[in-house]
């Protein structure tokens, strides 16, 4: 399964509502898990079996709870048993459509030159 999740404190101790210190605690849990993952500006995506992914998300949430009395958690999951490395394969599957667009444009340019 692939799960994209966002965990953040709902309370911060600074005037700018900076959350990076608390969020870094969650990202550290993910990095130390050994599971394939990717962190972007809004979500962390992690891939593995149901129990191991959910355990990492739970521990990441607890890491933020340690510094905030209230925590927000959003999870989106793609559950597809029997498939691995889908974090990369889904992107590759999408990208091939763009490379086809480039090939089609080159073919159209070649036809216009005749």
TrEMBL record:
Q: Where is the Thiamine-binding protein domain?
A: 3-95
* Region Disordered, residue ranges: 94-114
Superkingdom of this entry's organism?
Answer: Bacteria
Query: Which InterPro entries does this chain map to?
Result: MTH1187/YkoF-like, Thiamine_BP, UPF0045_domain
Q: Which family does it belong to?
A: Belongs to the UPF0045 family.
PANTHER family linked: UPF0045 PROTEIN ECM15
The name of this protein is Thiamine-binding protein domain-containing protein
């Amino acid at each position: 399964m692939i799960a994209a999740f966002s965990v953040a404190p709902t309370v911060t101790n600074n005037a700018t509502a900076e959350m990076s210190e608390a969020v870094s605690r969650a990202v550290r849990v993910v990095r130390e898990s050994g599971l394939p993952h990717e962190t972007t500006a809004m979500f962390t995506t992690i891939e593995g079996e149901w129990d191991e992914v959910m355990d990492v998300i739970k521990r990441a949430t607890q890491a933020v709870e340690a510094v905030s009395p209230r925590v927000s958690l959003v999870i989106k999951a793609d559950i597809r048993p029997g498939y691995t490395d889908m974090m990369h394969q889904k992107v590759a599957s999408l990208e091939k459509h763009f490379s086809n667009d480039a090939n089609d444009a080159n073919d159209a340019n070649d036809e216009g030159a005749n």
